[in-house]
Structure formats: structure tokens, C-alpha cells
Amino acid sequence: QVQLVESGGGVVPAGGSRRLSCEVSGITFRVYIMGWFRQAPGKEREFVAAFSRNETNQGYADSVKGRFVISRDNAKNTLYLQMNGLKPEDTAVYYCAARYSIRDHSSRVYIKGDEYSYWGQGTQVTVSS
Predict the structure, then answer these.
(1) Fewest beta carbons less than 10 Å away: which of 28, 67, 91, 95?
(2) What is the DSSP letter of 56?
(3) How does strand 32-39 pair with strand 18-25?
(4) Nearest 5 degrees, angle CA 110-CA 47-CA 100?
(5) With helix as H, strand as E and coil as C, how does 2-55 read?
(6) Measured distance CA(97)–CA(36) in Å, rounded
(7) Residue 21, CB half-sphere, CA atoms under 13 Å: how many?
(8) What residues have CB less than 8 Å from 103, skipping those under 6 apart?
(9) pLDDT tens digits, 93-104
(10) What are 16-36's pLDDT values in tens digits?
């Protein structure tokens, strides 16, 4: 049925770059808002980046703004997160998430985890120093 599968994680030196992918199946990708979250050991899951409905807006956590870029390829049913200038504090499991948006009449970027319905299994990103 519904699957969100993240990939692209691994170990990267501080200052390096990495691109995460989230391949989506089982839903009509274009009518779902997509976002990225992350969770470090012992910490709560936190917002990283997301689109609004129809990709009208993008939102980023202050901690990653200017370094990370969210994008999506609707033809491939895939969400991406390009991560540049990585820091050790970026080390976390990264999750993609999907929210049904067809009845949403706003352009708000959703930054709370409980505003999303579907989640991937996560991919580990470790930034060494």
C-alpha cells in the first residue's frame, strides 16, 4: 500500500554534502504535501524542511536555512533533500513525511510532525568531525 522509502544517508565529513531521496508509492503523490524531519538520539523529532500545498511555498528550520534545499520530482514520485555545508549537529535519522492536502485552501507550511499522516522508515546521516 503506502510506502515512503528514504535513501541516501551515510557518513559524511563536516562541511560536505549529501542528497537524500524519498520514493513514494501507493498514494497520488502530487496531492500530498511533503516534508522532511529529523531525530537525533535522545531528542524529539524536529522539522527540517517542507513544501506547502502545490509547492507554493517552502519552509526551512532556522538551523538549516541556507544550507539545505528541498525539491520534488512529481514524474518520479520522489522527494529530495540536498544538504550542503553539513555540521556534526546535523547528525540524525532523517524522515520524509506526507500530508493529504487537496482540501487545504491555505499556503501554510506545516512544521508539526502530527500534521503529517505517512512516514518513511528513516535514513541515518552521520556527520563526522
Answers:
(1) 28
(2) -
(3) unpaired
(4) 35
(5) CEEEEECCEEEECCCCEEEEEEEECCCHHHEEEEEEEECCCCCCEEEEEECHHH
(6) 6
(7) 9
(8) none
(9) 999 999 998 888
(10) 999 999 999 999 999 999 999
